[in-house]
Structure formats: structure tokens, C-alpha cells
Amino acid sequence: MAIRNLSPLPETPPHGRALPAFAIIGWRWIGRNPAVAVAPILLPFIFLYFLSLISPPSLLPLEIAGAMLFTMQNIGSWVLGDSATWRIECSIQDLFVASPMGRFRYLFGIAFSNLIAMLPALAVLSGLLAWTQYSRGIPVPLSAWGIIVACLGVLWVLFSSIGIAISSRVTTQREIWPVGSLSFTLLGMLAPLYYPISYLPPVWQEMARFVPTTYAALLIQAALGITPASPVTMAGYAALLGLSACLGIGLALGLYRWRTG
Amino acid sequence: MRSELALAPSRAFRGLGSFLWTEILVQAHEWLAMGTSMVVQGVLLVFVWILDPSLLPVSFLGAILFSMFTMGQRVLNEAAYLRIDHKANDLYLASPMTPEGYFLGMAIGILVVYVGPVLVIGLLSIWVVPYTPAIVLLLFLLALAVWLFSASTGYIFSTFFRDNRAIWAYSSLFFNLFGVLFPVFYPLSLFPADLRSVALLLPPSAAAALLQSSIGATSLSEAQIALAAGGLAVEVTLILLGAILWARRTSREA
Predict the structure, then answer these.
(1) Nearest-by-Cβ selection for B186 from A54, A175, A189
(2) Chain CA centroid to CA B210, Å
(3) Taking the CA of residue A65 as centre, how many other CA atoms within 13 Å lie in the half-sphere pointing to its CB?
(4) Helix (H, G, I), strand (E, B) or coil at B144
């Protein structure tokens, strides 16, 4: 066979537009499967309806804020699913490993694409929270919105990292759904998202303090005036949220396997 | 081969036993999935325990029925997984096994394995539910009816999917909508009065209402009992026959 002189490959750009590409993936995902966007919107409402039947009406704003945090936490399960499916079923992770794109941009891209798919649910829940508080004569202050967005952002990074880290240890497609569902639902249930922490038995309260979502919930509940707290206490919640999130991200990065091939 | 089978009803379920055993062996390894199948029930029972413990008897009975209902979700996932991911559906249907044997073998195999966690809920419920032999018998029959309905629905739904990733969203919506929104975990009396007849026509909430009535947690008129029981019997029969016919039809298309 004659050996032909091949022209050299064009130089690969070291910085691609990974984020917009992953944003399109996220948009296409919900564009092609509308139920994927509808499910995370409706599922919290189904639970909110159930909770509204069995709890005092005064807890409704707290439950809506809890649904927002729970929705954001569930991104971890979605990220886990995507990351594992792309690696196991599509065998596409090896392609990214071989590309100039580093693992952080790959991980951030998957997390970003799932955030796009989750945004409609968060927008609807935010609207409901604003309307509920407004109709009670206590509109949500701007500072509270800032705290809500910050808490959601921290949880997005944290649970996406955990989801991706777990995904790298999943070996078969069949494990994806149960592992994701169990991990993130249990983490969500441990934290007092849908009721004040004082409602929980003492042992449970102590356990909940090891979960970052607890501090996000306490911070938002304080910012909304549902569970009053002094500025110093709120600063403490924020510090503990940041600290536990950093620990969680560190653990997740330690657990993550990038070059599996 | 298919036309011969159609003429021989005694062979209509050929392969059921072997596929049932296969499915039991496959599912018995799915400890994580078994644990996950109890997550929603566990979460709702915790909600009730924390926020209104007086509803625990109703919620425990609802958890048992909901567990049987969500076995349909397992059938949906398994049937779609075998067809889309493993491409094993065609292989099974090309074998001497009949479509009926394939569907029922899968559904019963999943039932045999997943009934374990349901029995755990049942045992826990003894602490709060005032069981009598009649209530236990009623619970058994209603749970069986709910399972038949959901397994048949799950199998039919599974044939519509072309992408495994889309299944979760649709099946979660379906099973949580009919199992959580409607009065399965809470008394029918808390549901809007205008929509109660709708709830009595849906298998999970109809079965739950009949059980709630049997323990005195809900008061049902004779007409409501007839609507719930009659509707459940008709719906289960129709959907089971529909699933068997659909299994035959989709096997011809495969």
C-alpha cells in the first residue's frame, strides 16, 4: 500500500466554546422531550399539594423554598445519569479525555446543561414563592432573593460534583437510576427542607447538621422571615454552608475518575 | 408458529415459567433498585409522621398500595431496557416463548422479588393499622388488582419509548400523579368533593378509598363503594386483556 503524504492536522484550539455547546445540549434535551422539563416542575407541586393537606398553611412558603432546594439538589441525580450514560452507553467520555478540554470544563459543562433543563422548574417555583408571600402582605425582599440565588448556586456546584463523582464509580446502566435516586432523595430528606428543623426529633436534628442543604434551608428560611435569626446567626449558617460545600466538593473530586479507559 | 399457538390456548403462555425464573434471578440482584422502589413511600411516611401522625394508618395502607402500583414502573423500565438497551426483546419473541409468557413472566418475576419490601411495610403497619382477617383479605385482593393494573399499563407504555433517558421523566410523572396527588396516602375526605368520583375511578385511589372505609378512616356511600369496586374490576380486566393483546401485536411488529 502506498504511503501518502498527509497534510498535518490543523492545530487544535486550546480553548473551545464548551459552555455554549453544553447549554445547547441542555436546551435540546428539554426541547425534544418536553416531559423532561415538565416533570421537575410538576413533581415538586405534587409533593407540595400533599404537604399542604397535612401541614399548617403557614408553612407553605417554607415548603416552596424547600421544593426549590430539593429541585436544585436533584440536579445531582440528573448529572449522574448524563455523565454515566455518556461514559457507559455512548462511550463518549474517552473522546473528551483525549480532547484538549480538561475534566473541569467537561464536568462544569454537564452540570450547566442540566441546569438549563432545571431552570423552568425553578422559575415557576420562584414565581409561586413571590406570589404567596405577596398575597400575605410580606413580599420577598431583594436581599432574600440574593440569598436564595446564592444558596441555589452553591448547591448546584456541590450536588453536580457529587453526582459526577458517583457516576464515575457506576459500572452498568442499570445502576444509574437507583443509585441516583437513593443518594439524592436520602440527602434531601435528611435536611429540613419542607418543615422547620425544630419539628425533627433531636437525633435527626443533629444528623441534619452534617448536610449542607440544612444550612441552605435555614439561611433561606431566615431570609424570608419564616424562622427568625440574627444577622450573626445567618452569617454562621452561610459560613457552615460554604465550609460543608467545600468539604463535599473536595471529597467528590477525590472520588472522581477521569481517565477510566 | 404464532398462528399455531393462537389455535392452541393451552400453549398460549408457553415460556412463562422459564422467563419468570429468569426475571426473578435478574431482579434478585437489584438490591439498590429494591431500596429505591421504597423511597417515595418512605419520604411520604416521614412527612406524615412529622406533620400529622394521626394519618399514619391511612398512609401505611396507601404505602402498601403505592408499592404495588409502582411495580408497574419496574415492568416499564425492565421491558424498555430489554428492548432498547439489550435488544433482547426480538430474541425472546423469536424463541418458542409466547408474547403472553414474556409479559406475564416479567411482571410476575418482578412481583415475586419486589414483594419483599412491601411485606416489610406491611409488618410495620401492624403497629398502627387495626387489622382484622377481613381487612387483610381485602388488602390482599386490592393490592393484587392494583398490581395487575400497573404491570399491564407499564408493559404497554414501555413499547412506546425509543430512548431510555426519556423514560424516567414520563414514568415518574405518571406514577406520582396517580399515586401521590390523588388520595392514596391521605383520606379521601381531604380531596376536593367535586373530584372524589374521579378519584374513585382511578385504581390506586379507588383501592385506597375502599381500604380507608374498611378501617373507618373514610365514610363511603353504597354507590361510592360500587363505583370504586366495580370500576376497579372493569379497569383491571380491560387493561390486562389489552396488555396481552398488545404484547401479541407488538411481537408481530418486532
Answers:
(1) A54
(2) 17
(3) 35
(4) helix
Mutate to test the interface with B, among A54, A85, A171, A186 (most CBs of B within 10 A): A54
pLDDT digit string, tens, across residues A216-227: 999 999 999 888
Residue of B40, B89, B117 whose CA lies nearest to B254: B89
Q: Show me where the domains of chain B are located.
A: 2-253
A189, B38 Cβ separation under 8 angstroms: no
- Give the domain extent around A85: 19-48+55-255
Contacts of B254 (CB under 8 A, 6+ apart): B89, B90, B93
Task: Tell me the nearest-neighbour CA distance from B36 into chain A, angstroms.
Answer: 5
Element housing B164 (H / E):
helix B164-176
Q: Quick check: is A106 in a domain? A: yes
Residue A260 lies in a domain: no
Give the up-direction half-sphere exposure of residue B27: CA atoms within 13 A in the CB hemisphere.
29
Separation between Cα atoms, residue B101 and residue B251, nearest integer Å: 12
Cα angle for residues B143, B149, B152 (degrees, 5° grid): 135
> Is B126 in a helix, a strand, or coil?
coil
pLDDT in tens, B1-15: 444 445 455 566 777
- Residue A247 inside a domain? The answer is yes
Highest mean pLDDT pick, A82-91, B41-50, B159-168: B41-50
- Dist. CA B172–CA B176, nearest whole Å: 6
What is the rounded distance in angstroms from the CA atom of residue A173 to the CA atom of residue A155? 26
Residue A139 domain-assigned (yes or no): yes
Q: Quick one: which of B239, B224, B232 has its CA closest to B203?
A: B232
Measured in angstroms, the CA of A190 and the nearest CA of chain B are apart by 10
Q: Which three cell numbers stand for residue A26?
A: 441542555
- pLDDT tens-digit readout, B191-210: 999 999 999 999 999 999 99
Chain B hits for A205, CB-CB cut-off 8 Å, are: none
First-to-last C-alpha distance (Å) of chain B: 15
CB contact under 8 Å between A173 and B81, yes or no, is yes
Calculated CA dihedral for residues B31, B24, B104, B146, nearest 10 degrees: -40
Chain A CB contacts of B52 under 8 Å are 54-55
Chain A contact set for B190 (CB, 8 A): 53
- What does each C-alpha distance from A34 to A23, A40, B170, B214 come to in angstroms? 16, 11, 10, 41
Find all residues with CB under 8 Å of A98, minimum gap 6, and list them. none
Reduced to 3 states, what is the DSSP secondary structure of residue A169?
Answer: coil
Angstrom distance (rounded) from CA B37 to CA B179: 13
Task: Say if residue A67's pLDDT is above 60.
Answer: yes
Number of domains in chain A: 1
Q: Are A13 and A101 in contact (CB under 8 A)?
A: no
